[in-house]
Amino acid sequence: MLDETYLIERLKSDSQKETAFKELISTYKERLYWHIRHIVKSHDDTDDVLQNTFIKIFRNIHNFKGDSKLYSWMYRIATNESITFINKKAKRLQITNEEVQELAINNLTSDVFFEGDVIQLKLQKAIATLPEKQQLVFNMKYFEDLKYKDMSDILDTSEGALKASYHIAVKKIEAYLINN
User: Fold this and answer.
1) Which CATH class for the 1-114 domain?
2) Which candidate, 53, 54, 45, 49, places its Cα nearest to that of 22?
3) Does the structural domain 116-180 have CATH classification 3.30.530.20?
4) Which residues contact 16 (CB under 8 A, 6 or more apart)?
5) What are 13-18's contacts with CB under 8 Å, separation 24+?
6) Cα angle vertex 97, ends 153, 154, to 5°?
7) pLDDT tens for residues 63-110?
8) Into which family does the record put it (predicted)?
9) Where are the domains of the chain?
10) Disulfide engineering: 72 pairs with which of 44, 81, 125, 153, CB 3.0-4.6 Å?
11) Which one-letter DSSP state was computed for residue 94?
């Protein structure tokens, strides 16, 4: 397992930053990819957001204070970059964020990187009906199996609020799946 403290020291060191950053990417790339993918849906969009996320991490690592785990800090950046991406896309296309999500889900069937079946597609449609915060909480818990403590660090929300959001999201998804 990666020693986070040592990695952070190397990331902040001018002489070791690039090597340490390559190590950081190889360690966290897949986890961050799937986190972003659950938010933006499209593989191509995910690649763009992931690249922006790593650029932001590289440029701002010196601001990392160590108040949370490194991966919580990176997940927060990835989450914010994903939301920003959706907001910009909605503005560019002059549609709502919900319509951007709907468009992305409708495009999943033609996405060669989407390996889900009819049930997965229906689940994605159900998730898209949730408010943004509930989507994030559901995706982090259901797909990534993150602990509420880690989600609390990433989303800067209490564990109790996250548990309530997840519970409500599950009920809404169940209702959607039953009725559609």
Assistant:
1) mainly alpha
2) 54
3) no
4) 10
5) 17/61
6) 5
7) 998 888 898 999 999 999 999 999 999 899 898 888 888 787 777 666
8) Belongs to the sigma-70 factor family. ECF subfamily.
9) 1-114, 116-180
10) 153
11) T
